[in-house]
Amino acid sequence: MNEKFAPRLKKVVINALQRKETKQETEEVHHRVLQDRKYLVDAAIVRTMKARRRLTHAELTQEVIRILRFPLDIEVLRQRIASLIENDYMENDQTDTRFYLYVA
């Protein structure tokens, strides 16, 4: 064994400085994530309504929360339901307003 051997290349470990995100950057990322997720929420609502045709708000909420794999704010869900009703994917039942109907 050659004890005088010294390698020409030495391994130098430099700790990378962790970039701190500002509050504004964090909010922007959060907003973009919510924008991306709204399409997933819409798809889950339409998929559920297409399968069931007629559901109450509580049943629809439970089913969508069960389908989605991320935490969902109920207010966002209400907004997406209102958007789908506005875009004629769903409608409120004329006889009983507790129910939503799927419009094919």
Task: Please characterize this protein's 3D structure.
The protein is mainly α and 104 residues long. It has a domain at 34-102: Winged helix-like DNA-binding domain superfamily/Winged helix DNA-binding domain (Arc Repressor Mutant, subunit A). Helix content is 52%, strand content 10%. The chain is built from 3 helices and 3 strands; from the N terminus they run H-E-H-H-E-E. The chain has helices at 23-52, 57-67, 74-86, and strands at residues 54-56, 90-92, 99-102. The protein has a 3-stranded antiparallel sheet. Strand 2 (90-92) and strand 3 (99-102) form a beta hairpin. Helix 1 (23-52) crosses helix 3. The radius of gyration is 26 Å and the shape is elongated.
Keywords, separated by commas or semicolons:
104 residues; mainly alpha; Arc Repressor Mutant, subunit A; 3 strands; 10% strand; elongated
Task: Summarize the structure in short.
With 104 residues, the protein is mostly helical.
Helices and strands in order:
Elements: H1 23-52, E1 54-56, H2 57-67, H3 74-86, E2 90-92, E3 99-102
Antiparallel strand pairs: 1-3, 2-3
Helix pairs in contact: 1-2, 1-3
Low-confidence stretches: none
Q: Which sequence of strands runs across the widest sheet? A: 1-3-2
Report the span from N to C terminus. 81 Å
Largest sheet: 3 strands, antiparallel
Q: Can you count the beta strands?
A: 3
CATH topology label of the domain at 34-102? Arc Repressor Mutant, subunit A
What's the SSE pattern?
A: HEHHEE
CATH architecture of the domain at 34-102: Orthogonal Bundle
The best one-word shape is elongated
CATH class call of the domain at 34-102: Mainly Alpha
Number of helices: 3
Overall average residue pLDDT: 87
* Main structural class: mainly alpha
User: How much helix, percentage-wise, in residues?
Assistant: 40-55%
